[in-house]
Write a structure and sequence with these properties.
heterodimer, A: 504 residues, Helix Hairpins, six-stranded antiparallel sheet, five-stranded mixed sheet, disordered N terminus, B: 251 residues, alpha/beta, Rossmann fold, Arc Repressor Mutant, subunit A, 2 domains, four-stranded antiparallel sheet
Chain lengths: 504, 251
């Protein structure tokens, strides 16, 4: 189906474009943001654990050293340097991580399992972390925490502990730290990617459907997965909207079909008349008569167009700005008076009954037009009916202003009542009468604009049209006498001597 | 022509009203403008035309026109702005707005902008002519005190006492018939259309569809002409009515 407007074709996507699109999705951006936050948290937590583990290990080493020193200091106190050297020598032979060294003041090795240690370490008493070499093995250097004391006579005592175990543990923690961070980042990116591509797939599907709809496939609907997520809800409301648009489109198509059918007939008649006059009319009088008929026919067409436009404008609802307090009773009296003479000429009694102060928010012109249409119809179909009377009544019932127009003509069969409000609908027995079947649709449009209701019923026999409008608040009634909220100077001026044209 | 008042000399409006109007048609559609100029000239009037809003504004300010006929949608300066500008410059020439927009609110907007009458397109020329003449007539009559009595031939209407007499014989009219006659007499000698009557006597602007107005006029005519040889309200085919007293046929 072609709807007359073009839709750009969906361009074929490259991989790069696809990835770029993925990166731009909200789902992906959100995933990345969460990932960054989570990675930071993981980093802090793991860092805290590593830092604490290190502190605990260092504490352990230092307290071991302290215990050694305590032992050695006891030996020294008991047996002096000689005893200390003996103990150190013995302990040095024991396997383990403990380190001992006794040197002379000049740094010469006396006893101990430490072969090499930087001179600066020995020169400065106190605790430090340093490299050292074992006296009993290769020249390989290891790391240790050591404490250096100065003994009487310039001797130095070094007590320490190898930190290899601690360092290994530290490395393990560090690796665990790195691995888990990498895993978090990787999983986050993959998760984000998956979430984004899932959303993207659905959005792409939606885009494709909407483009197809734009291209004219009005029956297309968006896929609803049924899991009630936000995309589902969006798709469901868009589908509802499409349904509504489809309804409106069908309505419009119906109208245009109607226009095509109901306006082509008079247009053809118009054309034929002109054609026939051109072909066969000989005298100026005949031509003149034909031209007059043509003008009359086009006037009828203009009238139909005006009515159609008016209905369309009213249904679009943008005439609401012209609503002001209007006295419905006065309008009924005025229009009733306008049609009274015509009714009498047709042998009908037009009975108009309207109370006072029937104020509605309305437009006097539109109300007048609707009333005229209703009375016109009632007179048209009520003539020759069971009872030669057309009744127009307006009254206030609670918060509603009710208006009824009833005749005793043939009425409208119940099955047809809904249909006659449509445009161009003319019942079979009305085909012979003048009119285009727009009268009631116009009334209906006016009533709807005024937030009122319209009901057709049996008048036994005849047709009864009931209108109901919400009554305007009493306070507004004060301004109602003017008919419009804002007086228009030119309107008064166009009717010389305002008193002529207005009912007092 | 014979509109006569008691307070003024018998040649008051009738003399001023020469029957020929000077018109300015501001319409961008050349064909439509040419049609109007030709049609107005054929009916004895003088018509100029302007193609756009600015030219129209300049001409309207300079020229002494009886009525301006302004299309609503114009290039350079739209019709409503043009009218507003003219009114701001104290140009009071009556303006008739022609517009393809014929809905209730369009009409109200046009009149609020300072227009005096509003005619939706498409229109019958007879309707436009009648309305233009009514506007021109009003312009000439404006400033003069409202007459309290109208007289056309042997027909007299007293606006104060609400009495109508023909050749001295009193004719009893319903209030609405009185207003109808009052309007017809005010525009004596001019064609008034059915929509003009609906607008000015009933104050409604909708399309009267059936012959409601004709029924009222024929009733009034029945009362006025009863017992007199010459009718005073004449039907103008395809246009409307004219109230005219034909000399030498006094009943």
């Amino acid at each position: 189906m072609s709807t007359g407007f073009s839709v750009e074709p969906v361009p074929r996507e490259t991989v790069g474009a696809r990835v770029q699109k993925l990166f731009r999705t909200t789902a992906f951006k959100l995933s990345i943001a969460y990932l960054a936050i989570f990675a930071l948290c993981a980093f802090l937590a793991l860092g805290y654990v590593a830092w604490n583990a290190r502190a605990v290990l260092d504490d352990q080493i230092v307290s071991t050293i302290d215990a050694e020193i305590n032992g050695l200091s006891e030996q020294y106190n008991a047996g002096g340097l000689r005893r200390l050297i003996t103990v150190v020598e013995r302990r040095s032979r024991e396997p383990g991580a403990s380190l001992y060294l006794v040197t002379t003041a000049s740094g010469e090795h006396v006893v101990g399992n430490v072969g090499y240690v930087p001179a600066a370490v020995l020169a400065n008493p106190g605790q430090s972390e340093t490299r050292y070499g074992r006296s009993d093995s290769d020249a390989e250097l290891h790391r240790a925490i050591v404490r250096v004391f100065t003994l009487p006579g310039g001797f130095r005592l070094l007590v320490g502990r190898d930190t290899e175990e601690r360092d290994r543990l530290r490395a393990v923690i560090g690796r665990a730290f790195g691995t888990s961070l990498a895993a978090v980042v990787l999983l986050g990116v993959i998760g984000g990617w998956l979430a984004a591509s899932r959303v993207l797939r659905r959005v792409d599907a939606m885009t494709q459907t909407t483009r197809a709809i734009m291209a004219g496939d009005l029956d297309g609907r968006l896929y609803v997965a049924g899991n009630g997520d936000e995309l589902d809800r969006l798709a469901a409301s868009l589908n509802l909207m499409l349904e509504r648009i489809g309804e409106l489109m069908r309505g419009m198509r119906e109208v245009s079909d109607n226009i095509a059918h109901d306006l082509k007939t008079p247009l053809t008649r118009l054309r034929n008349r002109a054609d026939e006059a051109l072909r066969s009319a000989v005298s100026p009088e005949e031509l003149r008569a034909a031209l007059e008929a043509v003008i009359e026919e086009s006037d009828g067409l203009i009238r139909v167009f005006n009515a159609l436009l008016m209905i369309a404008r009213l249904e679009a609802g943008n005439a609401r700005e012209i609503l002001a307090p209007v006295d419905l009773g006065a309008a009924v009296q005025e229009v009733g008076e306008l049609y009274e003479a015509l009714a009498e000429d047709q042998g009908l009694l037009l009975d108009v009954r309207a109370g006072d102060g029937l104020i509605i928010a309305g437009n006097r012109e539109l109300i007048g037009q609707a009333l005229a249409n209703l009375i016109d119809n009632a007179l048209k179909y009520g003539a020759g009916g069971a009872e030669a009377q057309v009744t127009v009544e307006a009254e206030r019932v609670g918060d509603t202003i009710r208006l009824s127009v009833s005749d005793h003509g043939p009425g409208i069969p119940e099955a047809e009542r809904g249909r006659v409000l449509g445009r161009f609908v003319r019942l079979e027995d009305a085909r012979s009468r003048p009119g285009f079947g727009l009268g009631l649709s116009l009334v209906n449009a006016v009533v709807r604009l005024h937030r009122g209701t319209l009901r057709l019923s049996d008048n036994g026999p005849g047709l009864r049209v009931d209108l109901a409008f919400p009554a305007e608040a009493q306070g507004a009634a004060a301004t109602a006498g003017d008919g419009a909220a804002e007086p228009i100077p030119a309107l008064a001026a166009s009717a010389p001597g305002g008193s002529i044209s207005r009912l007092s | 022509m014979a509109v006569v008042t008691e307070q003024r000399s018998p040649v008051s409006r009738a003399a001023l009203w020469t029957g020929s109007m000077r018109l300015l048609i501001i319409e961008d559609d050349r064909e439509a403008a040419a049609y109007l100029v030709k049609a107005f000239r054929e009916t004895g009037h003088v018509a100029d035309s302007a193609q756009d809003g600015l030219d129209g504004y300049a001409l309207a300010r300079e020229g002494a026109y009886d009525v301006l006929i302004v299309d609503r949608m114009l290039p350079k300066l739209d019709g409503l702005s043009l009218i507003r500008s003219l009114r701001e410059q104290a140009v009071t020439t009556p303006v008739l707005i022609l517009s393809a927009l014929g809905q209730v609110d369009d009409r109200v907007k046009g009149l609020r902008a300072g227009g005096d009458d509003y005619l939706p397109k498409p229109y019958a020329f007879s309707e436009l002519l009648a309305r233009t003449e009514a506007l021109a007539r009003r312009q000439i009559g404006s400033g003069a005190a409202e007459e309290t009595r109208y007289r056309v031939g042997d027909l007299e209407l007293d606006r104060l006492s609400h009495r109508v007499t023909r050749a001295g014989r009193e004719i009893v009219l319903q209030p609405r018939e009185f207003r109808l006659l009052e309007y017809l007499m005010r525009h004596a000698g001019q064609v008034v259309t059915r929509t003009m009557l609906l607008e000015n006597v009933w104050d409604y602007h909708f399309d009267p569809q059936t012959n409601v107005i004709d029924v009222h006029v024929s009733r009034l005519r029945g009362k006025l002409d009863k017992g007199f040889a010459s009718p005073i309200i004449h039907t103008v085919r395809g246009a409307g009515y004219v109230l005219r007293f034909d000399e030498g046929s006094t009943g």
